[in-house]
Amino acid sequence: MAKPLSSTVDKGVANSGALVSAFARQIVPIAPILVLIVVFLIWPIVNVAAKAFEDNNGNFTLDNFVVASQGVYAQAFGNSISLGIYSALLASIPGAAFAYIIESRGSEFLKRIINSATSVLAISGGVPLAFMFIAAFGVEGSATVLLKFIGLDLYASGFTLFSYWGLVLVYCFFQIPIMVLVFSPAVQALRKEWTEAARSLGASKWQYWRHVGIPLLFPSFSASFLLLFASAFSAYATARAMTVGTIALVPLMIGTLVDGNVIVDQFNLGKALAIGMVLVTAVAMVPYLLIQRRVARWQK
Amino acid sequence: MKRLGFKLPSAGLFITVLLAGIFVLLPLGSASEYSFRTPMFGPGTYGWDNYAWFVSQPDFGTYVTLSLMLAAVAAAITLFVLVPTVVWLNLRGQRLRPLMEFLTLLPLVIPVVALAIGAQTSLPVELQSNQYSLSFFYFVLALPYTYRTLDIGIRAIPLKTLSEAARSLGASQIKVIALVLAPVVRGAVIASVFLTIALSLGEFTLTSLLHWQTFTTWVTVISQSNILGAIALSVFTIVAAFALLLVVGLVSIRTKRRQVTEE
Q: What is the ipTM for the molecules in this complex?
């Protein structure tokens, strides 16, 4: 790993500045992208974090966090977290199964088409998706009519699209594609030789999965699950277009605070809520990073 | 013969693809049917009226053009900043890869609403009042997808060997990049540029919270006066994205096939 450094030293710049200059040589080519990431991502968030600890006069306070963790805001965090968990649960298993079948059995052509399709569904979603579902699964939508025709009456049990579970259903439409997108590389890395080795040693199909397949895929599966959680937890556009503030979700609350539609005593409450969200996703993403590092060892 | 793990009968594949088709086409087809309804001419009638309506809106052209311009700038940043970075990381910058992997994951950790607040309070007014600052945000938000797409595509290619071979045959640095490296990374580059465009065209959260009006936020505006028009516009958006992806997918297949035959 230390090769670039030592080779620089070999070339005869072996003084105390060699290490620094070697580092500089490494960092300069990626400087443009670092600048963009700092200006358009890190600096704004550092700012939010700092302001979250300020009262209206700019003095240090913890009040914003106290309010953000109580009452309606605590409830919103609960709703958002459970929305993240449920939609990740519902999307991860079919997504993983789909990724496995396509990767292990599909032709190159099919894989490419599916890869592009999942990218588009995963990334461009949001608002058009919400309107599409309103049209399809609304009371008069033909999907509703069709499902009723085959015996699935969505509205019989008091379901509405503009409810918590309606939102979970719609989220699946971008969550499953995300799952396929992030889980496929793990399936690709499963080597055919391992199946053959297991078979030649006399393993049954069940034994293969029990001792080889699932242990190898499980870390990637849980990492993808965490990613799905973070994505649903912080999704804003779909929820905003579908519910008109009927369900308390943290991103929507922050949105109304930013818009200035709601006046609160504390100017910086929205920032404390935002930092609360960052903390929740960070808690989910730390195990993700650790798992990915472990997985990287055999995915070579 | 007993089949293990990897092989599934093609019936299984067929059913899977069928289910995926239903998953996509049930809502999409049903919404399309809805978008052709014309209740103003009586129940059960169909026509292109909802589509004609949004096309005839004076704002339609304005916002389509604006969104395409913003997407083009974001795509240009991907092309001229991200692509060289990833190529370089794969050639010489191995040590910095963990750092880049972490940084490009951050947009998934930091909720876009939180970023929007930060952008409002921390960026200089000159930057905020320029609409093209959105393109830079779109570029950053797309990084988790674009960086990984590029990195996976480029890592598979022995860039170092290829460039050393070209150099030893007397090619200049520029020739190495233009004639050797650029053609082999083309597929991954096209895919990442396309992802940037898809994200830019669909981005809503940051755009609306920073009080800009683009094609996507315009849909929510017209939905308040004409829900059928908004549904027609949404179907149009999704179908257009699918059409675009089909073209990109076919192009990248063709390049891949040619690479294979050239080998």
A: 0.83
